[in-house]
Amino acid sequence: MTNFYKIIFSSTLMLGTFLSISSMSWIFVWMGLEINLLSLMPIMKMYKNKYSSEATIKYFIIQAMASFLMLFSIIMFYSMKTTNLNLSIMNSLIICSALLLKLGAAPFHFWFPEVISGMNWETNFILLTWQKIAPIIILTYTSMNTLFLSIFVIFSSMISGLQGMNQTCLRKIIAYSSINHMGWMISAIMNSFMIWLNYFLIYTLINLNILIMLWKYNIYFMSQLNKMFSFNKKIKFFFALNFLSLGGLPPFLGFFPKWLTINNLIYTNFYSLAIILIIFTLVSLYMYMRITFSMLTINSFESIIKSIKKTNYTYFMINFLSLSSLMICSFFSNFL
């Protein structure tokens, strides 16, 4: 695919998202999601191999099912001769289910790791970040049933940690990590759009750092990590710390949005949900620890520190902002 077509499809991909989140009619919301989906198909097929073809077909079938459910609910909604965005309880639940299927939130997650494991890192970055924006914002347009959404939050945090434990494929580990973060994002947007936005931006920054390193060194399995990173100790060090940040371990930046979300859940009396999220996040931390502890050993730590002194300052500053901005963000949290 030439750069011209990449620009065209990327532009229509963004156009579909903006159309969905800015529309005042459910038909245009649905149209925006369809434009977004059809623009992504050629991008997913950019690298021709049997795995990407299979993943593209799976993704299209699941998204088409979700779109059908959503369109069915919208037709029911307009049959009531209503013109605003206010939905009945039944329509709201159907649209919420369709959107959660699009997002890959558990227990509708069955397709997500399979699709991610068949794609290259560039396409995966779009699936893990940009493709979440429209569905999760549209969730706020529905009359969100907190009990209904809480079930998906609990399942997402529980299943991602348990199923991600024994994975050796890094794409599947990243996919289960995304499902875990999806639970946190849903719990954040249930109460505060600004906290969700904060969470999403930080999650995108950390994912960008990790996926750039994996893409640059063409790494797809855990067995490749030590072999490939042994030639560049500073990359190995930054990769390990970014993974800990993705897991939400303090004092890294990834801890900040989780801290905000927990504070907000407690403030709005969702005590049980906050406790369940914390417990299953501790379980999922094992997934991140497996990777980082196998890479960072006491014997190699001194050589890593020496190599960091020689590192490019621009690259170092990007990682520094990603890893140790907790104190800066804590200050800005006073204005949320």
Strand residues, percent:
under 5%
Order of helices and strands: HHHHHHHHHHHHHHHH
The pLDDT mean sits at: 84
Shape: globular
Helix content: over 70%
**Secondary structural class:** mainly alpha
Quote the distance from N terminus to C terminus.
43 Å
Low-pLDDT parts are: 298-305, 307-311, 330-336
How many separate domains make up the residues?
1
Enzyme class: translocase
GO molecular function, one term: NADH dehydrogenase (ubiquinone) activity
Pfam family, one: Proton_antipo_M
Main location: mitochondrion
What does this structure look like?
With 336 residues, the protein is mainly α. It has one domain (3-335). The chain has 16 helices and no strands. Helix 6 runs antiparallel to helix 9 (193-216) and helix 9 packs antiparallel against helix 12 (255-267). The chain is globular, with a radius of gyration of 20 Å.
Secondary structure elements and their pairing?
Layout: H1 3-22, H2 26-44, H3 50-79, H4 89-103, H5 112-117, H6 121-139, H7 146-164, H8 170-189, H9 193-216, H10 225-229, H11 233-246, H12 255-267, H13 271-295, H14 298-309, H15 313-323, H16 326-332
Keywords: Electron transport, Membrane, Mitochondrion, Mitochondrion inner membrane, NAD, Respiratory chain, Translocase, Transmembrane, Transmembrane helix, Transport, Ubiquinone
Enzyme class: translocase
InterPro entries: Complex_I_Subunit_2 (IPR050175), NADH_UbQ_OxRdtase_chain2 (IPR003917), ND/Mrp_TM (IPR001750)
